[in-house]
Structures are given as C-alpha cells and as structure tokens.
Amino acid sequence: MTFSIENLLNEHSNDKFELHEQFLNNQMVRVLKTIGYDRHYKKAVGQYLYDQEGTEYLDLLSGFGVFAIGRNHPTVIEALKETLTLELPNLVQLDVSILSGLLAKEILKTTPENLTKMFFCNSGTEAVEAAIKFARFTTKRDKIVFCDHGYHGLTMGALSLNGENIFREGFGSLLPNCEAIPFNDLVALEKALSNKDVAAFIVEPIQGKGVNLPDDNYLPEVERLCKQYGTLFVADEVQTGLGRTGKFWAVDHWNVQPDMICMAKALSGGFVPVGGVAMTQKIMDTVYNRMDRAVVHGSTFSKNNMAMAAGLATLEVMHAENLVENSMKIGTDIINNLNAMGDRYELLKEARGKGMMIAIEFQSPKSLKLKAGWAMLEAANKGLFCQMVTIPLFKEHHILTQVAGHGMNVVKLLPPLNLTQKDHDTIISAFDKTIGETHKMGGAIWDLGKNLASHALKNRKG
User: Fold this and answer.
1) Hey, what CATH class is 13-69+323-461 in?
2) Is CATH 3.40.640.10 correct for 74-320?
3) pLDDT tens across 309-345, in order?
C-alpha cells in the first residue's frame, strides 16, 4: 500500500481538534472554540483561506507575517519540486552549498551597504540568539539592552530580551546582564550605554506588539549613540523585514545602518523554516577568526537546500510582483481610510503603521452608555473590547485578524503583501460596519461583549 498524505488528510478530515486535545496543546483548542475560530480549512491560495463549505476568508494575519507573498505561491512550489527531484547533495556538512551562497548574495543586495556577510539559521528566535552571541564575542562585553514591550522570540536567550512578562513568568532564571529600557527614549538609551559595557542594543524598528512607531530621529540617534559608546546596533526585522512596512527593510525608512539585521518569517514564503542574520565583515571575521572556530556557531539544518531554494524563489516573487511597492500603496490607503472614520466613531482612537504592518487602536468613549460598556469589558479583562471587534470581523465578514498583544485595545493587521484594491475595499467596509455596531448599545455585538466578559471572569476565578 502506497503511503499518501492526501489519503491521511481525507481519512482524518474532521479529527484535528480531537488530535490536538489528546496529543498537543488542548488550551489552544479551547481558545479557538471559545471565540468561534474553530474552522476546518481545506485550501489556501494567496491571501485567502477556504473552509470545508467553500467559504472564503481574507487572511490579514498571514501566519504572523510568514505568508508575505501569499499562501502556496506557485513559483515557490515549483522551486521546491525542482529541488526535490534534482537529487542534490544536501547537508553534507563538511562542504559548503551553492544555494546558501546564492541566497546570501541576493539578500545582501537588499540590505544597507555596510552589511556584507550572512549567517543562516532556522527561525527568528535563532537569529536573535546568534546576534546575542556574536555581539558578545565581537565586543568582549556581556550586557544586552532591549526595549519594554519588545518581542524577540521564546528560546531562553531571546526570551531574556522579551519585554512582555506573560511570556517570561514561571520559566526560571533567564540570561543575566539584560536590561530593559523604554522604547523611543533616547535619554534612557544613552544612560544604559554610558558605562561602555553594553555589547548590543537589540530593537525592533517598529514594535510588533502594538505596532509602536518611533519618532523620526530615534533610530538615527540610536545608530549614533551605539557608535559613540562602542555598542553594536542590532535591528530585529523578523517581523518588519522583507517589504512588510513598504520598504524592503524597516530601517530603510530612516536611512540607518545597523551592525546586524535579524530576519526570518517571510523569507521562505511560508514553506520551510529559515532565518538569518546579516552583519558586517568585522563581526563575521571576529567570531570566525580561526580555522578551528569555523563551526563555533551553527545549526544542523540551517542551510538545507529546501530552505535556501524557498528563499531564492520568495525573493524572486517579491521583485517580480512589486510586492514592496504594493505593501506601501495599499497599506497606506488602509491606514488613511480607517483614520477617516475617526470623526464618526468615538471608540476609534487611530490607525497607525507603515505599509502592511497596521494597528487599529480603540479608546474609552465619552458618552455615558458606551463608557459603561467599555468599563465592563476592561474590568473583566483589559483589552477585551478588541475581541468584540475581531470575532464579528471573522464570523460575519470572514476576515481573519488578531489582537495586537496582551492587555491592549489594539487590533493588528499583518496581511499578505499582495492585497488588491478589492481586498482594500472589503477591509474598509467590514471595519466600518463592525465599529459602527460597537456604537449601538444593546445590539448583538454587545451581547457578544457580555459573553466574553463572563468567560473572562470565570477563567479568572478558575
């Protein structure tokens, strides 16, 4: 009998929640069922998901930004098929591969000109781990500075730089000599660097949790201060990179040159895990400074042929389809048209972001009835109002979004970069109707809000 993935999927088409409840993270299943996201998806093409009934969903989450070129792009699929059938030598280890060299060359064409070397790994958190080690070895310093509310991954080193306590609580002692400072605060940064004992300042150019943008002078001053105090400037572009913000790299908005750029997520088109660090020649030559140190840091699967081929194909798609330019155009239009609703909806504070990294923030209203409803939700669970927005967006308008972070009244969009004008119109119409419903106390959406508050209070007591 021939082994067949298709047969397995058909045989177990309705078993996925049961399998996860029994063998994997059953709490995730509980979350999906509680908020009504328990769909059986059967197909994914571009920016769309399709369930068993053939219902189309516009995916504005894109696997946390992984599917920047859309799901199941045919160019990447063909590249992977070709790679599989060529019978290439792979992971010989006592060798170097052609595909990894080619991918490094293509990536470095897009980075600031001071970055001339690449290190490959399997994920964004591994890229951050590498940056920590490389910074410490290069500077002969130990301390790492990061920002409050920053997110850099969940392995132990990267977790030590995580600015959200919910991810850190209960996991014991983390990496020593890591200091948090406020984001977008140059005074705090200079104070942290002034003792000249900091190996690296690691920062997201735009913070993913909440989509917090810096002042225009922040990153240029970060670059200047890091040079002044001998600290390496590391830009974590795992989420912001590869066209997400309307520039190939978010640092390009401010014309700065970090010493390292961490990347992952969108790099393989969503098919094969791949991450990387672009760095200066000095850092590479310092870390790998002798032949006996040629393997001092690496990863068994990091330069595998499938990942490298997927990366090359993804870059080709991005250039051929002008996805960076489309990200800027459509994303800017979405932000502007959402902000145009502000005069009509007192609960809407602002839409912000760059390109297709977008936050829609809500605020406490002034009118008494709405204020009472807002207070009820906040008392049950801070940021719960946003669930009252995302759930009808999903159930009624078939748009998949996310809450931007714990305790935030912010809905976050990380769409594929290939959104069309039609998609734009769908998004604006759906948000207009949904936000409009939140301004009608006593309506169905507030019944949902009461149910959410009740669940939140029960969970707190439990």
Assistant:
1) alpha beta
2) yes
3) 999 999 999 999 999 999 999 999 999 999 999 999 9
